Amino acid sequence: MKVNKSIISALCLLFIFVSVGDLIGQKTISGTVRSASDQEALLGASVAIKNSSVGTVTDLDGKYTLEVPDENTILVFTYIGYNSQELTVGARSQIDVSLEVSVQSIEEVVVIAYGETEKKKFTGALTSVSAEDLEQVPQVSAVQMMQGRAAGVLVEDNSGQPGTAGSIIIRGVGTLGNARDPLYVVDGTPTSSIASLNPNDISSISILKDAAATSIYGSRASNGVVLITTKKGKIGETQFSFNAQYGLSDIENPNDFRMMNSSEYVEYYREAYQAAGENPDDPNSGRYLPLSAANVNTDWIDAVSQTGKTQQIEFSASGGSEKTRHFASLSYFNQEGVVIGTNFERFSGRLNFDMSPVDKVNIYLNLLGSYTDSDLQYSDGGRGGTFSGAFNVAPTSTILATNDTPAGLNGLGYNFNLPSNAGHNPVATSDIRERVQKGVRAFPTLRLTYEPVDRLLLSTSASVDYTFRKENAYQSKFYFAETDNGLAELTTWVYTDANFNATASYGIDLNADHQITPLIGIEVYKSTTTIESSESRDFAFDGINNVAAGAVPLGSDYIYNANTLVSMFSRINYSFRDKFLLEASFRRDGSSRFGPENRWGDFYAVGAGYNIHEEAFMQSQSLFNTLRLRLSYGIQGNNGIGDFAWRSGYGTEGTFIVPPQGGGTGLPNSGAQPDEPGNQELKWEQSKSFNAGIDFTLLNNRIGGTIEYYHRSSVDLLAERLISHTSGFTSIIDNIGDVQNQGIEFSLNTTNIESGDFSWTSNFNITFNNNEIVELNGVADQLFTDSRLVRIIGQPLDQWYLPQYAGVDPADGRPLYLTEDGGVSADINDAVSEVSGQSSLTPDYFGSFTNTISFKGLSLSAMFYFKDGFYVYRSQLSSLSVPSSNNQPASNLARWQQPGDQTDAPRSDDASGQLNSTRWLEDGSYIRLRNITLLYRLPASLTSKLGLSSLDVSVRGVNVLTFTKYNGFNPDTGLYEADDYPIPRTITFGLSAKF
Amino acid sequence: MRKIIYIYTYLLIGVLLVSCEDFLDEQPRTLTIPEVALGTESDIVTALHGAYSILNDDGFAMMHNVIADASTDNGKVPSDVESAGSNPDRIPYAYSLDLSRQFTADALWTEAYQLIAAVNNVMARLEEVEFDAAFEARVKAECLSLRALMHFSLIEVFAQDYNYTSDQSHLGVPYVKETIPGSSPARNTMAEVYAELMADVNEALSLFSNSGDVLTEAGYRQGAGIYFFNYYAALGLRARLHFYKADYSSALNDANEILSGPYALESTYTRGPQVNDGVPGDFVDQWYGLAPILESEAIFQLDVDTDDGNFANRSLIDIYTANNGNAAHGVSQDLLDLYEPDDARLGWYIDEPATPALDLHVFKYPGGLGINADAHHFPVMRLTEFTLMAAECEARVGSEETARSLVLDITDRAGASPIVSSGTELVEDIITERRKELAFEGHRLYDLKRLQRGFVRNDCVLTNGNCTVSYPTDLYAWPIPGIELDSNPEMVQNSGYN
């Protein structure tokens, strides 16, 4: 870093020389500028004579020398991030100054679209998650960091597979399609994924929720916007930091769910077979299950589970001067999953430079690179899945082949004589079948900023986000549950997102009362995705398993998507004495996703704020420190539709193969058929959003909070409109759907105790969202998105639609279902399928309660996260047929056995109880100790002896404890994946040193 | 200062706008628009072949044929039917005639119109772009033939017979000559549909007679001619139009022209030992294997092969045999009783599996038995059909000698007794011979409709009253699919299905 500093010094000297000519020195003043908090010398602080162009900057040791005209001269000391100070020279010749850190600017500045602003001047709904908040979370993924941190933001994990990103839904789902994710913007660049981002590189996250905050992102804003700011170098000595974490994870099982063991299995099935008139003691019967079968007792779920290990090592360096700041980090992350054979590895590096080579010009360069390597389950669910398959297999079967295993079912020592799971051996699946994904991401950004005059900021930014991912899957020829004789797949994905934008903003004080800040800009974006895959089977050797080595090619596939976006936008902010605030934004987007007639869409928002505490009448009270009212309305778009959905055209399908005269091998006549009807009229989905919010702080800022109400009407939603089949097509995509979301968000931050070394703070937030379908496809009142899920006009999006299970008939042990006339029937075909109060996939409300206690270097933080009123379908359990040989959940032991038995589990030989019905629908509601962090910062006296500026040790836990009625592993899942890969519980030990 | 902002941004916006529309015109790489796709002769033929391939989908290759036998006195549900056999995609309701807007021939409806749209597109491009005259004539002739065949198949299933009303004012189906996605065409009357059918076929015939097989000659097409429409296939279609309209003299003219064409009847049906021992019994040799069926008399055939991409989701093998699950449709004893014990054609029906002895399964299309298990040929038109058509017409117009001699070829080769009757009995015997010979080739229902007859199933286990159907009946015009009614406000449901 020496070199750097000397360059700076040289530049400083140059400035001094330049300035010399202007001086008519009469008095020489010298001194040192320091930071008030730690008395560190400040390099590059400006020392200037007020109302003149004369000045200097401080050197390496914070020292300066300046000639001033006379004793009345006023010196202005300024330094970025600090409050400036003015001092009259007087008789002194040495003036040492300590500058205070500008607390206000750090705390109240929030990152918004295309810039930053003071929070008190912002009229939109925004939740900012600071670096300090993020440090309390074991940083697994950038998405998971957000869970519970912001009202209105529903973060779902979806799967326990290491490396899975999770999903975010902001203020409910406002589309009928799949584009539910918010727009992610990393350091000003829109990007499609934040999955491979190293969470430790994130310095803050701003979640933009209403129109005033998001409309300037136009057609991509209706699902909300997540702005991520990464860590940058700070002025000062280069600071190195080293982090190491080691964690252990396991499968959380709050209510001790389990499958039957072998003696239970034998008892249950012997009873079932006998009831069906079979003799389980007869080796020639298809249902041979002697009592001795219980001698083998394999716990398959245990066999495919393991204690996962997480390890992370990270090194970063940051520092710089006023002219150049830099930040570099390298990290290695390795997570072994809780299901055997699964793993995720990530190497990531980041380098950024923030330079001001010439006055008024700033260059920011950010290079981000990562390499990821994931071992996935070969198959995500069903009998071939490692975890899901373990539900099926009979506990009376061995994992490894024995002497009794037929030769053709002994594959590399594994037992494939498993009729209970169609031959699939879940342990073998993890070993001799593999699915490996490797990815490389490079994401450089370059931004140039020029401030020709004070508060006029011209900025251009260009970036390319490139991801290459490759998946190799191989199923050994000895995996005898399949007859492919070895199967190999190769798939590659190439994603390229390029973005360019240019903005100009100007802060204008019309006079002391009126301030306006206009912003205009343009943006150009192009995204392409190419997916290519090929597959082959029949392998000569197990070890030579690339796709080319398969004797029988199974075809290849090619998918190409591309879209472009051209935008112009502007925003104007008006502030009257910081009391009344008005904001208006407008964006015009042109997208290749629409036909020439509807290519351009206009989006806008207006927002107003009223800082009531600035009023004179508020000055006499002492309850409120701040009280602000905000209102906004605007229109945002959603362009999350197929890239080429509007186009009609021919696809290359329909090859007409016919034999020659006299028969023989077919000869191909290449064919093409009309593939897409297209729709030239297709236009943007639109959301009309209204937001009202109150922000307050009370009692000397000890209590702060926000209450918001929002109403979002999403119209012109893309849906498949059925068209007459006489056109040769069954449907076209059209703008017909209509969905509304409204909700209330409440968040409260309190400082309960702050005395000396002890402090206790609390954060609470809760969100109620109400979702309602207003129009589906113009024809239907209800539509099934799958055999078990329905959308009904007037009701929330996506609800379970299942025959209503009514328990077991005590007389004969048969399952009963509710019928239309309110009675019950043993025939599921008579059952009425309906949505009920227990059908929702999304919670009625959710939120979190966090408490942080710190005493000296010790701090303890715990977040309880709660989610109420959502239901999980246990499709894995309903797929276990009875009476067959599938293993059964232990809860089936409570089966009906004799007339009069009152139970919920049907008799063991009844098949219909396993059919899809509400029997397998469970209330997923829970309260969970989501995060707990105990952190100890060693005393400075001790660390300085070690040559460190700080040393933290920590223990963090995720999903430590869950209180729920749900009888599975973890209710936080996607649609049917409840038992495909449970989300784990993790305890992490960490060490963090700065020097 | 503001000037600088303005210059700066105007410059950028200016640069952008110049290339904006081009930049926003992002092209897909797996889809090509008709204006680009159908610009050359090669493209036109590619689109035509894409249309042909739809014939091999479920609607025409499977559903249209299975319905004709399963829903009449030829059909039966095998007693060993499995639950898989009752899946809707095996149309179990064709036999029980428990028809509704949901349980009908929806795949036929959708795919027939899909094919019609495909040929309409091709013909629209022939209008727009200048092509060689002979090329254009041949392509258009095939397109018109396909369009007529599809519309004819639709009225066979979804409309009552031609003479259901004396002025043909009853409803047919929409005759779609121009495809506009999103439009809602109404049903044409039978008179209108027939006028369009005749117009299309007549134009096709005149175009065929003025152009040779230019597509094969130019190298645009490979494979035997029996898989494509030609003059005789179009003529066969016109013969059918007349026949099913009960215009027997016109039908006779067309049938006779086909009989004098380049085809020859198979002289004998022999029963050989099976090749594959998976199934007992012996097959009619000429119908076994992967090669075309009776190639010498083949006018128009389908080669349905799930392995090579000529794909029907459910091949006839799937429906009629235990190849995949179990047979969904079997042979009625009523039909079997019509054959004499030594009739070689009994080799079309095999007891599978042999033990325990159950019902016979239809092995008229055994394919290669294990070699490409789902592959088989299907004779859409073969000379026998027109021989029997000519015989019936001759008998009806009084040329009984000619009629008897025509049928003699058919009975002789099967080893059946010759028909010796005369008068109405002769007509009746020819109709029965037609039923025996063309069983499970997709004719029975449409013949019953032409004859305006109901039927009695003696070998019947139904409890819904459909063992006996008397004419006229709503069951002879299948319900329009619910999806069409939901999406087309102009669509009218057939009587009896509301």
Topology of this protein?
The complex is a heterodimer of chains A (995) and B (498).
Chain A: H1 2-20, E1 27-35, E2 46-49, E3 55-57, E4 63-68, E5 74-78, E6 85-88, E7 97-99, H2 103-108, E8 109-112, E9 115-118, E10 126-129, H3 131-135, E11 153-156, E12 167-170, E13 183-186, E14 189-191, E15 202-208, H4 211-214, E16 225-230, E17 236-251, H5 262-275, H6 300-303, E18 308-320, E19 324-336, E20 343-355, E21 361-376, H7 386-392, E22 410-411, E23 414-415, H8 426-432, E24 433-450, E25 456-475, E26 487-506, E27 508-509, E28 514-537, E29 552-576, E30 580-591, E31 600-611, E32 624-638, E33 649-651, E34 656-658, E35 667-669, E36 673-676, E37 685-698, E38 703-722, E39 731-755, E40 758-775, E41 782-786, E42 789-792, E43 799-800, E44 802-803, E45 805-808, E46 815-818, E47 824-825, E48 833-834, E49 845-855, E50 858-868, E51 871-873, H9 875-878, E52 921-923, E53 926-937, H10 940-945, E54 950-964, E55 984-994
Chain B: H1 2-23, H2 34-37, H3 41-54, H4 58-70, E1 75-76, H5 93-96, H6 106-128, H7 133-158, H8 190-209, H9 214-217, H10 231-244, H11 248-259, E2 271-272, E3 283-284, E4 298-304, H12 316-320, E5 330-331, H13 333-336, E6 349-351, E7 360-362, E8 376-382, H14 383-397, H15 400-414, H16 424-437, H17 444-450, E9 455-456, E10 468-469, H18 482-487
Helix pairs in contact in B: 3-6, 3-7, 4-6, 6-7, 7-8, 7-10, 8-10, 10-11, 11-14, 14-15, 14-16, 15-16
